[in-house]
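Input/output pair, single chain:
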Amino acid sequence: MSKGSKVRPIVLIGYMGSGKSTLLKPLAEATLRIAIDLDTYIEQKYEMSISHIFAKYGDFHFRKIERHALEEALSIDNALIALGGGTPCFYDSMKLISKSSFSVYLKVSTRKLIDRLSSRRSERPLITDLENAEFSSFVEREVAKRGLYYEQADLILKDTVIEEAISVITKRYKDFDQVS
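Output:
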C-alpha cells in the first residue's frame, strides 16, 4: 500500500455465537489494529443496549442505526471490526463490506451455535423469547438464510481455534492487501 493511504479494515462476520467478539481482542493485538465491536459501538453511541434499542424502536429502526454505524466504523483507519450477526444481511451492507474491507466469515456448525447460544438467549433480542424447539429451528433457518451473505466473505474459517484463526487471517490479509 502506498505511503499515506488508508489501511483497509478487517471485518469479522458470522452468526451470533460464532466467536467474532471472542476473536476480536487477540486478533487486534496480533495485528496492531483498533478493535471495534459494532454492537458495543452502537450501545455507546446511543447510550442504550442493543436489546433496549430493539425493544424501543424495533428491528427496522435498529437495522438503519446499524448500517450507519457500519459506515462509520469502516471509515476508521486500521480498524478490526466484529459485526453483529445480521449486519451483512441488510441493505447493501455486504456489498459495502466487500468493497471497503477484507472480510472473514467465522463459520461454525449450527449444532455448535445452538449449544453456545442456548445459555445466553436472554442477551440476544432475536432469540430471547423463543421456546426450545422453536429456538433450534429458528437458528437453523437463520443460519441458512444469512449464509448467502456470509459466504461472500474474502476468507471463510470453519470451526477454527483462536491461534489458528489469527495465523490464517494475518497471512491471507497480507496476500489480499498486496493484490488490492
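The domain at 10-167 is CATH 3.40.50.300 (Rossmann fold). Residues 50-74 form the longest helix (25 residues).
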